[in-house]
């Protein structure tokens, strides 16, 4: 009764736990990781990383639904001339009560539930709020618990109403009471549309017009062309007509993404975005959504849908297999009650402990289910043995007395192994370890309370054989037992060959473990026919790429030239300003990085990224580099115009200024193909090899200018002559363009070219006279790299910048001639160099921060693998220690771990050799194999050592262990493995892989325990498991040793790993008094006397 009373609490906890499921790759990494810190920092300053892209068939600039949807997503504030509905007492806007408390409607207002004409809404943390007719919002003091609901039901039954108790939260306009839907939190923070940005750039007064006041039709057409080029692949499709809307989420919108974007599955309401699309007249079957929040929602929904569709099918298959094995409806129900309640309880613990499930933790119920199933099947088989040997009377007690020790040791050992995963610094693995261990231990309560009580209350009928003895085993069990004994004889006779073959397989597949690769790319989790994959395919074809990769160029204030020229400056500041960058030059930093990336990785290069976005996207075409007086004047005019619009640029979400440091943050936003099989690690490295040379050129420019200025007694550097020793890439590009004759030029990743061309432009903009001495030369200038030309340059120029080493010039000779040599060959990015983070105290004055989904996913993949390997090694180490303690032998403990490791090595090694990636759906299945293998190993070794203590030879002890354990092991594999194999037909890839891996791992665990382990025990290593005389079964409680074997009348204590007796009588007779010739002597089964 106690178990049945507690089951509803488990069901409720499991349901509430699933409702709180959420997945965010960022949350998988510890908060102290560089990638996590950088992404959090980025989200503090910019909005666009958590974006949702919305489009549909026929979404063009002329579609009125586009602007209508934009207004619905982010309603504009009322003007002074309008009725100020929305200007609530608590404050509209940033302090709006709906946003503050995350309020939303549940579909039922429960109006006047408490008798005060109140209307009800839910808020953050599933907390209830109600609004009164006077506009007062109260936070309800009641709780959504079963006991609370029962109390309120009784209260309403006896008093006719419920007493309303709440705490004051806010006061709003009474209009909100009349229209509570308007009190809901704003889930979207900002929204932009393609036509809106196009107008901002190219319409009269747009930022692309050089002279907005004097622009004619030709200027407008040219601006429109440039704007479409910049926005193609971002806000407009290749045809120039298909467009979209991009919305960013508010804090309230991020709390429950399914409430914001969900498709309304599993009894949930349709997400707010989809509701508003319907209100705007956009059919759901034409709507396409993309972006990181959409990915996370899809994972949550697909995981739940898969469970809903397949869990009943899996249970049906498991029940059918269980009935075939057990041949008893009652026993089948009992077994599945234990496994099912254990799994449900483990999930409910997640909620009751205040946590939430994720994609990794969704594997945990299956782990507990299989382990609970295994324990129940072992107890059931011990019960059947007791019934056949001594009758139904007292059989449950004997089953528990026999199985409590191995079941307890197996559960504790497995819990220790799983609990070791809690040492991981990866949140999903840590939670998996903690809650799996708790679930396994909770299973013991069911095994030792519910199961014996159920067997006593509803005992299955046992048939009588021809000789009158009870026959509790099903034909399938008898066949399995006979088959197992034949296997035992085969292995015992060929133990060396079998053990050798197992060791060879262990080594081969162990080698395959070194080839394991992990993947946490979210879209790889979905079937090709899933809605999200179809949406991404449509969006990337019609609009552009969608996976965000962000670069932020951080410029410290000491590098920034002052804004304007009228402010008085102290001499020191004026002295430094000649080295500082103007606003135009700082904007060019972002543009140079963006252009370099697009040249190599963009559509004209490797086609890994689409068009990027930066502040330069919203600025007019920037002037070319130049150092002449005219160029200087043009660039100065451009700079002043850009400075005038700096506040407007700060509103674009691509330029920010840090409050604390005053540093400018120039964002370059890139988009990768979601459906392309991009290796993120290689991509991030390539990205740094492109961007870092650009930043290195800016740093080197500063060094060169300061060197020249110092040599001139701080009198400046303008018009000084500098020779660059290295390839003249400008000439090469011109020649390549001429030869191509209109054809596209292929851009390759060349860090030297990126650095050299950038440095040349920066020196020219600083008004230095720049010459080249190209050691390669070219056909048009055969004397370009002659010694005579170098001698001429040495007579004319004082400063030589070495970009590339060559034997064409003697640096020692140049230095001897009194020239200044500046080494600029250290521009390349090295993957071994330490990764910079915004939190580093010694961060350079000019640096690039790489963040977004891509580096986080890549780091998560590497970290999950390393953490999983480390945690699993710890698990096996701790289990080996426990096994050594239980077996009272370190060597025996280590040997006993070989069959426990065997299934993991076999299956995951095969995946490594076959090139099958390990994803989040398969990572934790190793713990299932470990748990089942440990459970079966302990039961097998228990009977093996018991047989040895009874005086049996090792061969006979192995046969006895087979007879006692093999059937339960095979039944666990058949019922658990084939039952969970149903998930292999899922359309959700992690669930699908989990399904076929489960059956594979359980089968491998069975081979490890019924093939590998017996072969080891039958060989020389088996001698380690023979107890010495001090632990012999013949030792009585007082410590006096008795001779073995003993007859059936002795009272014998149980040794450390010895099952308790099955017999209660003193003879080999059944309960009807008939002798059973098929039974072994009583001394082979009994370790104590009862009844």
Q: Descriptors for this entry?
A:
alpha+beta; 4-stranded antiparallel β-sheet; 33 helices
Descriptive overview:
The chain is α+β, with helices and mostly antiparallel strands. It has a 4-stranded antiparallel beta sheet. Strands 2-3-4-5 form a 4-stranded antiparallel beta sheet. Helix 13 runs antiparallel to helix 14. It contains 33 helices and 18 strands. Among the domains are: 245 residues, no CATH class; 141 residues, Rossmann fold, CATH 3.40.50; 48 residues, no CATH class. The C terminus is likely disordered.
Topology of helices and strands:
Elements lengths: L1 H18 L14 H12 L5 E6 L7 H10 L23 H5 L17 E4 L5 E4 L4 E5 L5 H14 L6 E6 L2 H5 L9 E6 H9 L14 H15 L13 E5 L1 H5 L1 H5 L10 H8 L7 E4 L1 H35 L2 H24 L11 H27 L4 H25 L7 H31 L5 E2 L5 E2 L3 H19 L1 H18 L18 H12 L4 E9 L15 H7 L5 H19 L27 H16 L1 H5 L4 E3 L6 E9 L7 H32 L9 E5 L3 H12 L10 H15 L3 E5 L13 H10 L2 E4 L8 H6 L3 E4 L22 E7 H35 L2 H25 L10 H25 L4 H27 L8 H30 L73
Parallel strand pairs: 14-15, 14-16, 16-17
Antiparallel strand pairs: 1-7, 1-8, 2-3, 3-4, 4-5, 6-7, 9-10, 11-13, 11-18, 12-13
């Amino acid at each position: 009764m106690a178990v049945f009373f507690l089951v509803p609490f488990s069901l409720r906890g499991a349901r509430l736990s699933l409702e709180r499921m959420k997945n965010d790759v960022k949350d998988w990494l510890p908060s102290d990781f560089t990638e996590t810190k950088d992404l959090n920092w980025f989200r503090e300053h910019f909005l666009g990383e958590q974006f949702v892209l919305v489009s549909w068939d026929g979404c063009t600039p002329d579609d009125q639904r586009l602007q209508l949807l934009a207004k619905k997503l982010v309603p504009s504030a009322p003007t002074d001339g309008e009725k100020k509905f929305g200007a609530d007492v608590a404050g509209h806007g940033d302090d709006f009560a709906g946003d503050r408390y995350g309020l939303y409607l549940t579909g039922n207002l429960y109006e006047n539930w408490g008798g005060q004409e109140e209307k009800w809404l839910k808020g953050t943390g599933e907390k209830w709020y109600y609004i009164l007719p006077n506009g007062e919002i109260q936070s309800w003091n009641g709780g959504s618990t079963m006991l609370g609901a029962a109390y309120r039901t009784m209260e309403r039954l006896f008093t006719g109403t419920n007493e309303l108790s709440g705490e004051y939260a806010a006061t709003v306009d009474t209009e909100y009471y009349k229209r509570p839907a308007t009190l809901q939190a704003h889930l979207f923070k900002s929204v932009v549309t393609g036509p809106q940005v196009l107008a901002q750039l190219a319409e009269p007064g747009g930022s692309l017009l050089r002279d907005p006041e004097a622009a004619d039709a030709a200027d407008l057409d040219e601006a429109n062309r440039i704007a479409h080029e910049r926005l193609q692949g971002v806000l407009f499709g290749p045809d120039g007509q298909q467009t979209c809307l991009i919305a960013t989420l508010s804090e309230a919108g991020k709390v429950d993404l399914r409430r914001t974007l969900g498709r309304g599955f599993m009894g949930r309401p349709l997400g707010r975005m989809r509701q508003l699309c319907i209100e705007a007249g956009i059919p759901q079957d034409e709507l396409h959504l993309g972006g990181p929040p959409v990915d996370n929602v899809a994972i949550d929904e697909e995981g739940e849908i898969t469970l809903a569709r397949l869990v009943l099918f899996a249970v049906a298959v498991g029940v059918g297999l269980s009935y075939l094995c057990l041949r008893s409806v009652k026993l089948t129900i009992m077994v599945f009650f234990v496994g099912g309640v254990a799994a449900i309880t483990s999930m409910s613990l997640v909620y009751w402990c205040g946590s939430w499930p994720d994609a990794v933790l969704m594997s945990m119920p299956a782990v507990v289910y299989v382990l609970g199933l295994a324990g129940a099947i072992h107890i059931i088989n011990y019960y059947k043995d007791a019934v056949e040997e001594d009758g139904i009377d007292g059989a449950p007690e004997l089953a528990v007395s026999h199985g409590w020790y191995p079941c307890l040791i197996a559960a504790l050992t497995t819990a220790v192994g799983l609990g070791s995963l809690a040492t991981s610094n990866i949140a999903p693995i840590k939670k998996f370890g903690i809650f799996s261990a708790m679930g396994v231990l909770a299973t013991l309560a069911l095994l030792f309370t519910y199961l014996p009580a159920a067997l006593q209350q509803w005992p299955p009928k046992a048939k009588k054989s021809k000789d009158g003895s009870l026959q509790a085993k099903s034909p399938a069990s008898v066949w399995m037992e006979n088959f197992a004994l034949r296997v035992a004889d085969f292995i015992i006779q060929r133990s060396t060959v079998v053990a050798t073959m197992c060791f060879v397989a262990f080594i081969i597949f162990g080698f395959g473990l070194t080839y394991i690769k992990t993947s946490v790319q979210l879209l790889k989790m979905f079937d090709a026919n899933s809605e999200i994959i179809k949406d991404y395919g449509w969006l990337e074809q019609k609009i552009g790429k969608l996976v965000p990769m962000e670069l932020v160029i951080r410029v410290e204030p000491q590098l920034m030239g002052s804004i304007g020229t009228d402010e008085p400056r102290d001499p020191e500041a004026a002295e430094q300003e000649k080295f500082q960058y103007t606003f135009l030059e700082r904007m060019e930093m972002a543009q140079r990085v963006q252009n370099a990336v697009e040249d190599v990785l963009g559509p004209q290069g490797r086609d890994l990224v689409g068009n990027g976005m930066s502040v330069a996207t919203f600025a007019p075409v920037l002037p070319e580099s130049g150092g002449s007086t005219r160029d200087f004047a043009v660039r100065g005019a451009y700079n002043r115009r850009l400075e005038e619009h700096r506040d407007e640029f700060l509103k674009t979400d691509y330029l920010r200024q840090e409050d604390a440091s005053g540093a400018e943050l120039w964002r370059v936003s890139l988009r990768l193909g979601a459906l392309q099989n991009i290796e993120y690690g290689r991509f991030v490295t390539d990205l740094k090899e492109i961007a870092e040379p650009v930043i290195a050129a800016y740093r080197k420019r500063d060094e060169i200018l300061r060197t020249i200025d110092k040599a001139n007694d701080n009198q400046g550097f303008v018009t000084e002559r500098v020779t660059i020793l290295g390839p003249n890439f400008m000439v090469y590009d011109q020649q390549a363009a001429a030869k191509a004759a209109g054809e596209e030029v292929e851009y390759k990743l060349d860090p030297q070219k990126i650095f050299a061309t950038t440095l040349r432009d920066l020196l020219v903009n600083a008004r230095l006279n720049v010459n080249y001495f190209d050691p390669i030369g070219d056909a048009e200038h055969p004397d370009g790299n002659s010694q005579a030309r170098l001698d001429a340059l040495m007579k004319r120029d004082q400063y030589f910048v070495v970009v590339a080493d060559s034997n064409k010039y003697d640096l020692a000779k140049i230095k001897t001639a009194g020239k200044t040599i500046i080494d600029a060959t250290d521009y390349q990015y090295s993957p071994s160099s330490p990764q910079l983070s915004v939190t580093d105290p010694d961060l350079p004055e000019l640096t690039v921060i790489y963040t977004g989904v891509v580096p986080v996913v890549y780091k998560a993949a590497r970290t999950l693998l390393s953490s999983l390997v480390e945690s699993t090694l710890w698990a096996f180490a701790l289990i080996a220690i426990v096994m050594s303690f239980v077996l009272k032998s370190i060597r025996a403990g280590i040997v006993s771990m070989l069959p426990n490791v065997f299934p993991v090595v076999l299956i995951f090694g095969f995946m490594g050799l076959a090139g099958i990636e390990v994803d989040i759906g398969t990572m934790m299945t190793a713990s299932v194999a470990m748990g089942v293998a440990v459970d079966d190993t302990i039961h097998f070794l228990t009977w093996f050592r018991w047989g040895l203590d009874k005086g049996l030879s090792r061969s006979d002890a192995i046969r006895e262990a087979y007879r006692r354990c093999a059937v339960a092991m095979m039944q666990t594999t058949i019922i658990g493995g084939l039952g969970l194999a149903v998930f292999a037909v899922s359309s959700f890839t992690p669930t699908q892989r989990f399904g076929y891996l489960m059956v594979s791992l359980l089968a491998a665990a069975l081979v490890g325990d019924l093939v590998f382990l017996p072969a080891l025990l039958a060989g020389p290593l088996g001698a380690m498991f023979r107890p010495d005389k001090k632990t012999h079964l013949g030792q009585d409680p007082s410590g006096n040793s008795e001779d073995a074997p003993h007859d059936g009348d002795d009272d014998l204590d149980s040794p450390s790993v010895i099952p308790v007796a099955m017999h209660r009588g003193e003879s080999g007779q059944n309960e009807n008094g008939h002798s059973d010739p098929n039974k072994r002597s009583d001394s082979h089964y009994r370790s104590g006397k009862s009844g």
